[in-house]
Amino acid sequence: MKIAPLIGAVAGLLAAGCTPVLDDRVSAANGASLFAENCAACHGPQGRGYDGPSRDWTPPPDLSLLSQRNGGVFPEIATLATIYGSVGHIDPERTMPEFGAGDLGPTVVVEVEEGVGTPIPADLVALAEYLRTIQR
């Protein structure tokens, strides 16, 4: 997925005053803030998995290893789908909330494959961008 070029295009529209400020909203820094608010309780503050008292659940995965588990490539589409909640409709054992049911902000167009733009909520893009930055 080619988020960076489209973020630049969005930034150009912003400069023209055509839309609300989205460039900060889709940034990895905003994603880190959203992660701290919505994800860290289960995935840990650095996304390396749950490290709290024992619970009756399957511990959430180490999100800093997504690329490693995907042959060294960050799995953007799968990450977006998982956060949004699409995966939950397939996997009845899923315990992660479906964030797509909530307000994920205005949409930005993201090129998910060559020449194909898809509107994706800005907060979802920001979370994925943050997760990309914590890969090891």
What keyword list fits this structure?
136 residues, alpha+beta, Cytochrome Bc1 Complex, Chain D, domain 2, single chain, two-stranded antiparallel ribbon
Question: What does this molecule look like?
Answer:
The protein is of the alpha+beta class and 136 residues long. It has a domain at 23-106 and 123-133: Cytochrome c-like domain (Cytochrome Bc1 Complex, Chain D, domain 2, Orthogonal Bundle), CATH 1.10.760.10. It is built from five helices and two strands. The chain has a two-stranded antiparallel ribbon with strand order 1-2. A hairpin with a 2-residue loop joins strand 1 (107-113) and strand 2 (116-121). Helix 4 (76-84) packs across helix 5. The relative contact order is 0.22. Residues 4-20 have low confidence and may be disordered.
Task: Describe the protein's topology.
Elements: H1 3-15, H2 28-38, H3 40-43, H4 76-84, E1 107-113, E2 116-121, H5 122-133
Antiparallel strand pairs: 1-2
Give the SSE order as H and E letters: HHHHEEH
The CATH homologous superfamily of the domain at 23-106 and 123-133 is termed Cytochrome c-like domain
Query: Main β-sheet, in a few words?
Result: 2 strands, antiparallel
Tell how many strands the DSSP assignment holds: 2
Distance between the termini: 20 Å
Q: Regions with pLDDT < 50 over 5+ consecutive residues?
A: 4-20
Q: What would you say the CATH architecture of the domain at 23-106 and 123-133 is? A: Orthogonal Bundle
Estimate what percentage of residues fall within beta strands.
Answer: 5-15%
Give average pLDDT, whole number: 81
Strand order within the widest beta sheet: 1-2
Portion of residues within helices: 25-40%
Shape: globular
CATH topology of the domain at 23-106 and 123-133: Cytochrome Bc1 Complex, Chain D, domain 2
Strand-pairing-aware structural class = alpha+beta
Rg, Å, rounded: 15 Å
The CATH top-level class label of the domain at 23-106 and 123-133:
Mainly Alpha
**Total of helices:** 5
